[in-house]
Amino acid sequence: MSDQTKKSNFRKIQQFSTDYSPANISQYVSERTGMNIVVVDKKGPEISGYFALATEILDDSGSPHTLEHLIFMGSKNHPYKGLLDRLSTRAYSNTNAWTDTDHTAYTINTAGWEGLSRILPIYLEHIVLPTLTDEACYTEVHHVDGEGNDAGVVYSEMQAIQNTSDEILNLHARRLLYPENVGFHYETGGLMQNLRVLTPERIRSFHREMYQPKNLCLILIGEVDIDNLLKILDKFEDGILTEIPSPDTKFHRPWVESIQPPPIAKTVVEKVYFPEEDESTGEILIAMFGPNCNDPVDMAALGVILFYLAGSSLSILESTMLDKEALASSISYDFDPRPNSVIWLQISGVSTDKLEFVERRLFDLLSQVSSEPLDMSYLIDCIHRQKRHTKLKAESSVSFFATRIISDFLYGKRDGSTLKNLSSIKEYEILEQWSDEGWRDFLSKWISNAAHISLLGTPSIKMADELEADEDDRITARTKSLGRKGLKKLANDLEAAIAKNDEEIPSTIMEQFPIAGVESIHFFQNTTARSGWAKKLGVYSNEIQEVVNSQSNLPLFIQFEHLPTNFVHITLLLETSAVATNNCPLLSLFLDIFFETPVIKNGEKIEFKEVVTKLHQDTVSYSINGAESLSHSEGLAIQIQTEPEKYSTAIEWIHTMMFESIFEEPRISARLDRILASIPELKRDGDNMANAIDAVIHFDNKSIVKARSTLVSATFLEKTKELLATDPKAVISSLEALRNALFTFKNMRVLVIANMTQLKNPVDAWKPLVEKLDKSEELVTIVKPFQRFSPDGQFPGGRGLVIVPMPTIDSSFCLATAKGPRLLTDPIIPALTVTISFLEAVEGPLWTSIRGKGLAYGTSILFDNNGLLQFSVYRSPDAFHAFSAAKDVINSFITGTTKIESHAFEGAVSSIVSDLAEKRATMIEAAKSHFINGVINGVEEGYDFNLLQKVRSITPEQMKAVMEDYLLPLFQPGKANVVVTCAPLLKKGIIKGFKESGFKVQTHELSSFTESYDSVDGRRNR
């Protein structure tokens, strides 16, 4: 029988459409192996694949997590480390993976079906038939280096999180929730002490047990050729049948056929310590069992009731505990979908001496809520809001379907009946019919009267000191025991393992895998129209432009992007150059309070709770933040998503909050308390602090990047809080000055993304917002980051190494900064783009030299045309070693010791194609990208596609010149500033390395980086 007529071994279980988004879902199962397939047909340039396996283990060995890394090290017929990723780049694909407690998922994002169809069988073979060599386990999981230090990619990852407050509390909660015979009891990422003794055979055994096709679900989202897909999978199965356990062998389905956890016998409240220098604030983590994840009505009800309780400033927990009583900085919630779902409540920024009181207060409030009539009007609003939010996510987020399908694969019925629940969101209509009594019964059963685990996370400097001392003693003892010969042997063992892993991939393999064609990549085609000042950038000729032209000649800068979306996405971009320097650090408070104030409407005061209630009713979401997502770090963005019929209402809300809000001392005080209470938690994050220090060093006081950074705003807002108590008028006056400086006609640019045929008066609806503003002045030029550089930003290199020890972290983070191009029109951009793509490729030069040798979890070269280039090291056991290795890599290409081979160059170009598809993966992102290019970056139409043509013609000599002129300075004393945050134990070795490389060194505490600004009353902060 020919391939054309041969019947597929995959049986279609069902096919259905969703009634809330333009998606069709097909489900298949293999009659031979039991492999599952779910295809979500959605339009767009990118196809997203999620290959999920249910993974259950009854220990802390980390075996599930290690496989997430080892799978990429080679397969039976492709036994070369890095081959999968190198071939993926030639297929316009990016691969990744994650490990959760109950599953491991391997991902791929591909531009077009042709590329995915080529790489899919190779990827699947890596998952089902990996090599899992001893050498790969040695470098990827754990080893001891020649200096006696623990290393390995997985080990470095877990080292960075094991002693954080989040990890300590979460694991302790699961230890109490689940007995030892239930897999959720364990840390599937692996604990450091277990990873140090984990054997390759244990990993292989776990793979044999769990990585069977019948335990694998392929989820593909995008424009998929299903007939071709089934042929590919049939052929793949032909090649693995003799290699896998017999499909007829009885298989224990993880989680579903395992022992289920017993109910929580009684409530437990425990104090749990975590290492921290600042003992002033702690946090509370609460866990309890919830409804079955296969019940869509109960799960939707859970989402609604949690939002009702803690989802906004209207909710009882937030308004009482945060605003009125100032007991914490935030209350958040989450739930893990399982047969016995887990409900999580987290209270952050709690004064350490009030932890017990706050935990009791929470449950007193919950009992009160469940014993009194609910605010049914607000509850119905919550239902409607959750429904709108679900529809928006289904349209704009690929992960919406992926997470739900994975959950169904893990816990749903194999006949497809539970997956079919995805066809509608009728559960929200059912919930609208629930009575007050029904809702309170639900709340009592699952939350307020439920037995639970409450952990009082308590900071401890003693614990921080003990952990540091214990680790120091352990490594010292081991180094002494090994001696010089033992350390030399370990260095040789590592070198041998790396050599084995890095065996050269035959060029014939790459040649047999040509670059995929681009014909199957279907980019979104949006229609653009412009109004007012936007027309100065050029006017389009299309039907939508004609509609816009037929409106009044309003001068407001508006760019419209017409797409077949069910929602309206409004962005009002604001310039900040008119804000007085001494007011810049007040922006954190201003943005936080913007949608949380009373207003005066038609001479009548409307309290903030009614304002927020109406905002919830009239929008899907709303926010005001820095405009980083629009590539404009020195700007602000007011963003509202709403339904087309409420377009003018949303604009009216923007006007109301800009010009009719009232700043009152009680609201200011409440929001200030919350912001300040959140600071200690932010200061525990090494990566966050490295970036905050970097901003203080490289930007001047006029920069809102610097002013809004954690370290600057924390000090300034402390002073503001003090002033508020003695002179509230001074604080209010400064907030009014901020408002007046920001909300002027000349600062405004608008982006509207919508189905324009559904909008009434797309231009004229903006008239009320600007009618009273001075429209005579020209628009303010968009400020570029380099215009806000400090002397250190203009001329990097003078600082050398700035190292900040942090007892809250066990690893190190590094950020090196040097000069870079300032504009996308700089002629160096094509060569720089392809060179960075080449160096950063998965299994490329930096990856193999740093992550591949266990020197860091990851590195990246950061470049966003702001005038600076940056090299980042993330989660390293020794940031200097990773930094030095990167320098050696770049030097090797400059000197010609290492050649830029053609296949790697082709892969770099292909990665740029896939990055472009990812940047435009959804309709909304494609429209935003068009706005960013034309308005923010000021480049010509089709810039991204023209760049693709230019990078293809870049030569190796041009790449070497870029490395020497732009990238090597990142590693050179006098040309780069380097910020390192690290565990105190690592400080000495890192300083030694940088000093020997010629860098001058400064050691500081975090408190050193609280830059002086005039305070809100004009006094100088010191």
Keywords:
1022 residues, alpha+beta, Cytochrome Bc1 Complex, Chain A, domain 1, 7-stranded mixed sheet, 37 helices, 43% helix, BgTH12-03935, Peptidase_M16_C, Pept_M16_N
What does this structure look like?
By secondary structure, the chain is α+β, with helices and mostly antiparallel strands. It has 4 domains: 10-256 and 494-511, Metalloenzyme, LuxS/M16 peptidase-like (Cytochrome Bc1 Complex, Chain A, domain 1); 268-394 and 415-459, 2-Layer Sandwich (Cytochrome Bc1 Complex, Chain A, domain 1); 527-768, Metalloenzyme, LuxS/M16 peptidase-like (Cytochrome Bc1 Complex, Chain A, domain 1); 789-1009, Metalloenzyme, LuxS/M16 peptidase-like (Cytochrome Bc1 Complex, Chain A, domain 1), CATH 3.30.830. The chain has 37 helices and 28 strands. Strands 1-2-3-9-4-6-5 form a 7-stranded mixed sheet, with helices on both faces. A 6-stranded mixed sheet has the order 15-16-22-17-21-20, sandwiched between helices. Strand 20 (621-627) and strand 21 form a beta hairpin. Helix 2 packs antiparallel against helix 3 (113-128), helix 4 (134-140) packs antiparallel against helix 17 and helix 23 (665-682) runs antiparallel to helix 26 (710-726). The longest helix has 41 residues, at 461-501. Mean pLDDT is 94; it is low at 1017-1022. Residues 198-375 form the Peptidase M16 C-terminal domain. Pfam families: Peptidase_M16, Peptidase_M16_C. Residues 60-147 form the Peptidase M16 N-terminal domain. This is BgTH12-03935.
